[in-house]
Amino acid sequence: MVTRGSVRRETCQIVVVDEGPLAHLALRAFLRQAPAFTVAASATTGAEGRRMISRLIPEIVICETRIGDDCGLELCRWIGLEHPGVMPVVLTSVDDVNLASAALDAGAHAYLLKSSPLEDLLFHLERVAEGQVIVDDRLGRSPAGRGGRRTRFDLSPREHEVLEEIILGLDNRAIAGRLCIAHETVKTHVKSILRKIGARDRAHAIAVVLGDARTGSGW
């Protein structure tokens, strides 16, 4: 049972701040099985996240290192200044030891990888709720090296970025603009992603990846 000021809560409330809808869907689906935690709200921008945090004063905030044009580490610093009782947790695709150290310096209570099994995420969140500071034990093991990304579909770091943009609903031209690569290059990456995932089209790819996240195989 959690006490927040004069409010007595049965569960630990979480606010998720991540621009990718996959993160919100996967976390909500998984944490429904964890009675100790409740996803109280979700935000896809840093500004929206700040509003939600100030309104709800959750126990934990889960955020990415990049939230659109905002920085997750800046959000952690803001939480420390404005709501010091709230515990920020960085849950990210970026496997980077230096970034993890910077996140902890910014006030994060944990630096966790999205490529880890969701059961491990639950274990780490329980430790954070107890007041511990956690760094994912898989950090630095990515075959892409320091700062690289890993998925079970063997996507390259660039393919992973393109897949994230597909999940956001962007078309090839928009993805090319955001990633500063040629339109034809995006088309090539999309074809490779669909082949590696075994998907018929973009919608099917999102469904396949979402199903993979729900089974805890890594995302």
UniProtKB/TrEMBL annotation:
Source domain of life: Bacteria
SMART domains in UniProt: HTH_LUXR (SM00421), REC (SM00448)
Ranges where the Response regulatory domain occurs: 13-129
Molecular function terms from GO: DNA binding
Keywords linked to the UniProt accession: DNA-binding, Phosphoprotein
Domain HTH luxR-type: 148-213
InterPro entries, per database record: CheY-like_superfamily (IPR011006), EvgA-like (IPR051015), NreC/VraR/RcsB-like_REC (IPR058245), Sig_transdc_resp-reg_C-effctor (IPR016032), Sig_transdc_resp-reg_receiver (IPR001789), Tscrpt_reg_LuxR_C (IPR000792)
SUPFAM superfamilies named among the record's database cross-references: C-terminal effector domain of the bipartite response regulators, CheY-like
CDD domains named in the record: LuxR_C_like, REC_NarL-like
Record-linked Pfam families: GerE (PF00196), Response_reg (PF00072)
PROSITE patterns the record matches: HTH_LUXR_1 (PS00622), HTH_LUXR_2 (PS50043), RESPONSE_REGULATORY (PS50110)
BP GO annotations: phosphorelay signal transduction system; regulation of DNA-templated transcription
Protein name from the UniProt record: Response regulator transcription factor
Organism: Herbidospora galbida
